[in-house]
């Protein structure tokens, strides 16, 4: 098919050019549809240059001009080689000259650009300019150099994440994926391929927390009291030494080893028992004669006991006085080693106490990186962080420092050790700029906030950064894809996601009132029973004294079959009958 030129190059400057649009008998301006966001071809003797229109105007044109409009274009790449074996490459080596013909890009040229040539690719949708051309992403480039999905609420961001992760699972069945699910909306998106973790079936022993993290737990997210922190920093290594002493002697008391000589620090991930920790604090308190000094020790013991006995923290402190080195089981459970047909973990965070969420995320991020580091990256892991701005805020006074540090470490060094990062956020301007700059593939959906758009403009180094001017007007499921994972900066539409893979929040209630649900005193009583059950001991009979010698190992194996949180489908009669049942 012969393509008619609709314009000519009238100026060139670096990676930018201006094109004069002609009015011809064969093709009017409206037929050409030479508008912003459209790809065009500039015909040069040795190559076909691919460019994108970023501005069209008819202002400042004299009546005698042969052009009906002018367009600004960004030069993106070029198609080289013979007609039967064309090859696309990014960047421009042959610049256009004044008068070179400009044509609308053909479907065949678009396929040359976007058809995968090497490596694993996933099909995520279709080009906005030509829906017959599939939009593919290079999995290796996207994962190994990190990626981010950005977009306001309601633009299809969660659905896009479900699509991307399901496609990645198909292309890389051996890749392990860990997803932080802030709003409990991804639990059903991955079927039998994902293990869903929540406070009811997670065991994350308190001794895996480093000093900053355990302090954050004990003080409820507030700054610690310096005097109490000094005591903790002194006794935690001793408690670890005492536990090791128990393990290394056939009979306790037969051979007393000075715990100070063991060489543990406050951050060494080895077990210790809370009873030993409290006994050490109590022992020091007993040696003091000054009553005001003893109060500090007493407050610290009370603080530890309060958190220890709070049933919301059971996932951390179950069997806290029994011990058991379960670190291998915890890492195997969290990061699916071996996968056993479930290479993905979805950690639902909505059910955790708000005061401890930052610490839990910090522990998981840190362990993910450290395991990759000490295993030399033999088992790659994709760590996906939903609502990333909550954990890695640009404002250093907001959030938990160790969490930001752990995510930043994955962003900067993770690719060397097979730990890859995926960030999802609706407020990129509030995300640490250093972290988002490490994401070399960006999927940008509609963003209305000017600060978010400004940050994107600084983060995108591509020649087609002018595409970002389209961000406020993108439709639902429409995406601007930039970076290493895509052949060219592209406006595309995510493909339809099957119904069973659509995210649905389990932490929210439908706003449509159920006609059949009776809101009487029995209903209120059932809700109160569940409410109180969440903050009271569920199993008073299971104290530490009755725990088996297996310690946390038994708890870990029992947790594998623990019931999952059920999704909220509105206050219907079935759910009302569930509310009447006591919470176990």
From TrEMBL:
<feature type="region of interest" description="Disordered">
    <location>
        <begin position="561"/>
        <end position="584"/>
    </location>
</feature>
<protein>
    <recommendedName>
        <fullName>Helicase HerA central domain-containing protein</fullName>
    </recommendedName>
</protein>
<dbReference type="Pfam" id="PF01935">
    <property type="entry name" value="DUF87"/>
</dbReference>
<feature type="domain" description="Helicase HerA central">
    <location>
        <begin position="122"/>
        <end position="367"/>
    </location>
</feature>
<dbReference type="InterPro" id="IPR008571">
    <property type="entry name" value="HerA-like"/>
</dbReference>
<dbReference type="InterPro" id="IPR027417">
    <property type="entry name" value="P-loop_NTPase"/>
</dbReference>
<dbReference type="InterPro" id="IPR002789">
    <property type="entry name" value="HerA_central"/>
</dbReference>
